[in-house]
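Progress narrative, work stream C.
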Amino acid sequence: MAKMKTMDFNTRYHLIGRIWIIFGICLFFSVPITMCLYYQTEPNWAVFADAGIITLLIVNLGSCLGEPILYAPMLGTNSEYLAFITGNLSNLKIPCVVRAHEVYEADRNSEEYEIISTISVATSTLITIVIIAVFVLVLALANGAIDAIRANEWITPAFSCVVYALFGSLGGKYVVKNPKLAIPPLIIIVVLSIVLGFLHVSPGSVYLVIGIVLCLVTAIIQVVREKKKQAIKKEEERLAVIANGNPEIETAPAEDTEAPSDETEEVPEKEEISEEAPAEDTEA
């Protein structure tokens, strides 16, 4: 304990976070391993050769490498470990953190900022656990509830649209804020879907990778165009100032250049006076 007190804030909480991350990973793997040992079976490794699984692994690999770097400044030390161990960052934790900082603004490098992020992630996690626990208990205690839900023709199709509704509700506000960034990839994906529909081709989750790549390309093009526009605008403003002959800008350098010349002219005068004084003494 004495050693822990001597550590600084970041080192101590990074150590605690890593310990809990390792403990959580071991706990996650213990469930399937225990089931495999108890039932004396093993996973179907041939499933991992499926194209959909490979695509999902590639997408998750990119998110695993990019999300810690992208979300670390936003979450802070404590909330980052808590968010990654509980999951649902892009669709739950990050929107909660963003909304919390919109309500209460704080400096990104301050302790208040990290406290707000930690409270928002912890609150989101607790509410999610409570909601899941309530619905699990309802489904477990209500006899035939699952069968009744599956039997209803107007409820069953909704389960196949959950992912699309989730991404639509979360991405809607970003589409409204950045239409130039979102509309071109959306149009391309819709056209591609229509064409592949007529060809009876179902790319499955490849759509997700295509959409991410299109968004990245559109973002790069937009950034390059904005930089060119800013450069052109600055050049036009500079030429306009030169054409108008702004006296403030033109006289300022002239005054600076003249000041040293005055000082250099005064120095020889002092030298002449100092040279004349000895001459008068000698005559006397």
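Work stream C, second folded protein:
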Amino acid sequence: MCAMSRRTLLRSGLGGYLLAPWLSSSVIAAQAGRNNPAGENIPDTGAVAAGLTSGEIVLGMSAAFSGPSRGLGIELYRGATAYFTEINQRGGVRGRDVVLKTYDDGYQPDPCVENTMTLMLQDRVFTLFGYVGTPTVARILPILKKFQDQKTYLFFPFTGAQPQREPPYGEFAFNLRASYLQETAGLVDNFMALNRRRIAVFYQADAYGRSGWAGVRKAAKAHGEMIAGEATYKRGTKFSGSMRMQVEILQKAKPEAVICIGSYAACAAFLRDAVDLGLRVPIANLSFVGSENLLKMVKQGRSDSRRYTDLLVNSQVVPSYHDTSIAAVREYRELIRQHNPQAPRELLKEEYTPFPYSFVSLEGFLNAKLMVELLQRLGDHPQRSDLESAAFSIKNFDLGIGEKISFAASRRQGLQRVYYTIVEDDRFITLDNWEQRFS
């Protein structure tokens, strides 16, 4: 289903909730029941049976399916759908199909807020799942806090930022992936070990970029250093845009490495212009960048693409999808091949060719696998009010990637490991020797 416009939202009566934050959640629940003809079987408390029928459990997702970052939402959705489809074909979760109700927010906060209100109040989903991006997630966390008695949580968003990991909003989300603090610390530590101490930052001018910037600053400070230089760009910048100004700003700082905190279109443009303008230092990206899309853009139409990637290193929060010695990777590859999931046609406004495999779709797959495990633990009569305790019951769970997962009130992030990848033979492979590559 396509995202509702602000005008449609206001006409539906939902816009008032955005404009009247003092409304109680019980009032909103009652209004949602009137807006949902099927709601006669859903108690007004919202804590029991919302997003639930005898045959379905409905999860709500808002993500980028349009715009320069659409590859992130599409690939995450494809990975999750591959696993949900397999589970549904096997009979679902205790007889119920897992249904992913999906809206496009274009990686923009305002549409994400509207989508979330629609998912919660009109669609009455069981819980939220698989959101994409820090600027979007940061905006919907206050909604979950405001209506906390509805027991609607956000599970496994595609962001490593801190807002959903710490007070006052950490209790309303569960994360699977490692944090940006962990990713940036790992990159900084490895560069410092090579005596590349002057580290500059290229980042998106929003909550995501600032989160990564803060991580680099914290890690550099631990080594007695400061950020050597910094340059920003506007969210939504396309690959066709020029990054000459940003490159020239960083060149004046004489960096020995650059860490980029952005999405693939802008970071690919920066990498292109940095190499063309002679900034020959290691350039790193965080996992959110969307490695395959970045590489595709950098390679397109070039016979000399290797000179753009020989000093590139990307951190990842899932293992390599090429490593078939890993059980979950074998399962992921088989189910992606078997089901060939596609993004909902009604959400696609621009052409996009999915990758056979990607780090983002593997993460979506693992998100879905853990979500199904959690739903199974709710028993035959699942209730929203039991979601948190079901998550806390996950202790030393083997997801199939060699790292056990546990949740607790003080531990709402499942995975801690960060991986590093470089480009060889036009694909990302695991980096085993930093000194050999970058010394």
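The two ends are 50 Å apart (CA to CA). No further action is required on this item.
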